[in-house]
Amino acid sequence: MDRNRKILSAYIAFPLGVGALAGFMIRNNWSIYKNLNLPAVSPPGWLFPIIWTVLYILMGIGSYLAASSPSHRKNESLKLYGIQLLLNVLWSLVFFNLKNYLLAFLLLLLLWYFIMKMIKAFWSANPDAAVLQVPYLLWVTFAAYLNLGIVFLN
């Protein structure tokens, strides 16, 4: 495998590893989802790991493209990428382990803001990197709907 492919693989493995770590940290509380009162449009629990796997792969590819860019904004974009990944993990812990749905919703709003900032910075580094993050932004927007619905229904 050539050097660039190995580097790309590492960039993809990183968010997948972060997601796996989050999953490990909430493994004993994941089942609460099926016991919650959910909004009218709610996906089944089995769909979440599939969607997150795809999103983490897209994040990894996007971060690789941003990091490979000669742009002066690549460092800023990778910093924002790291911040949003941290907020992503924190949301999982607050929602599933602490069962604090309102605080989780507020964290989700902060996450959404940082995803927007990351997309803007990625765009400056490499527009393709930014476009790959749009499904993530859409999913987090939908997750905000779910989370807020759970706040009101539980």
Automatic annotation (TrEMBL):
Topology within the bilayer: Multi-pass membrane protein
Compartments where found: Membrane
Subcellular location, principal: membrane
Transmembrane segments: 7-26, 46-66, 134-153
Gene3D superfamilies: TspO/MBR protein
Cellular component, GO annotation: membrane
Highest taxon listed in the record's lineage: Bacteria
InterPro entries according to UniProt: TspO/MBR-related_sf, TspO_MBR
Family classification: Belongs to the TspO/BZRP family.
Entry protein name: TspO and MBR like protein
Record organism: Lacrimispora saccharolytica (strain ATCC 35040 / DSM 2544 / NRCC 2533 / WM1)
